[in-house]
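hiii so um. not sure if this is the right channel but i have a protein structure encoded as tokens and i wanna go backwards to a sequence. like what aa goes where. can anyone help
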């Protein structure tokens, strides 16, 4: 209960401060084009409202190095600031999602260097994303690659995908969540087997174990992940984020605290125009109005100052997502 109280107290303080600026100012931030070395980025889907990040180190089977993870973090920052993006898909190649961490880069490390440099601390940006992140996994997802996929919210796998935590064969153990997330997702026995033997599991076994949501033919998995992102993007971004937080709380805390967190978030939706419009549309047997104009420019940041009429749905103005629309009027 104390943890839940702290979460809501922290959120309330942020909302109160932000609310002072939200009535007449609306911010629209769009990702600027940026040349990356280790990844490719683009907006995809029929409405270009899904961001696609493709890991691009083909000669190294997309091995995760500090440069690549830094670029992923930068791309996530850009797409999370872009109000037109509703979901993010991360993928690799058909041969490898990511075959592990870059061992050549890691090999010279010492214990002191790992401790003093807080090694791998900056690899967790994906797990901290506010928008839904979908991993589209083909080929090998091993070691750090498997851990990277598990940091995402949903995993779609190609039928030839392979998952594993082979660190034991290198004289080390998982360091980015492999021993922790596999246990929570697949149970202690399966996690022990994977981590203590380094054995790989295929996509079908990963799906049966709960690691993967769905399995598709290898050439279809990215497209299916994008379709999923498009569907998620049709809903209120505020409510999507609240729902994601509720599921993550179930994953990370006790049932008692999780139920309390969920109920309070459910109650909070009744202060939003998103919920009001959604339920009103259902009762009136019509589609909810979610298509008000939003800035479509992708290559600059634009600040628009205007008076917003109360009748305009809150999701038209993303700056309100955790500001005044969240606080009862």
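sure thing!! here u go:
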């Amino acid at each position: 209960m104390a943890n839940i109280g702290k979460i809501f107290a922290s959120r309330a303080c942020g909302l109160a401060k932000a609310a002072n600026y939200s009535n007449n100012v609306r911010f629209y931030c769009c990702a600027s084009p940026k040349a990356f070395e280790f990844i490719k980025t683009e907006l995809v889907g029929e409405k270009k409202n899904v961001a696609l990040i493709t890991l691009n180190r083909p000669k190294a089977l997309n091995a995760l190095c500090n440069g690549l993870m830094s670029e992923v973090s930068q791309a996530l920052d850009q797409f999370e600031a872009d109000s037109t993006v509703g979901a993010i898909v991360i993928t690799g190649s058909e041969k490898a999602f990511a075959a592990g961490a870059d061992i050549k880069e890691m090999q010279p490390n010492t214990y002191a260097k790992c401790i003093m440099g807080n090694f791998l601390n900056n690899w967790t940006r994906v797990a901290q994303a506010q928008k839904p992140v979908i991993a589209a996994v083909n080929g090998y997802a091993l070691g750090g690659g498997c851990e990277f996929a598990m940091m995402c919210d949903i995993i779609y796998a190609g039928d030839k995908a392979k998952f594993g935590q082979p660190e034991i064969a290198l004289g080390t153990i998982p360091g980015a969540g492999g021993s922790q997330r596999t246990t929570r997702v697949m149970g202690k026995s399966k996690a022990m087997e994977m981590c203590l033997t380094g054995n790989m599991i295929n996509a079908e076994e990963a799906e049966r174990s709960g690691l993967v949501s769905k399995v598709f033919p290898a050439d279809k998995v990215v497209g299916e992940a994008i379709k999923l992102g498009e569907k998620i993007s049709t809903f209120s971004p505020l409510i999507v984020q609240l729902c994601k937080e509720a599921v993550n709380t179930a994953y990370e805390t006790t049932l008692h605290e999780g139920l309390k967190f969920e109920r309070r978030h459910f109650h909070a939706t009744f202060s939003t125009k998103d919920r009001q419009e959604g339920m009103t549309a259902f009762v009136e047997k019509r589609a909810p109005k979610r298509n008000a104009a939003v800035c479509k420019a992708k290559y600059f940041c634009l600040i628009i100052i205007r008076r917003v009429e109360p009748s305009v749905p809150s999701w038209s103005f993303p700056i309100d997502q955790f500001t005044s629309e969240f606080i009862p009027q």
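oh and Confidence is low (pLDDT under 50) at residues 12-32, 291-329.
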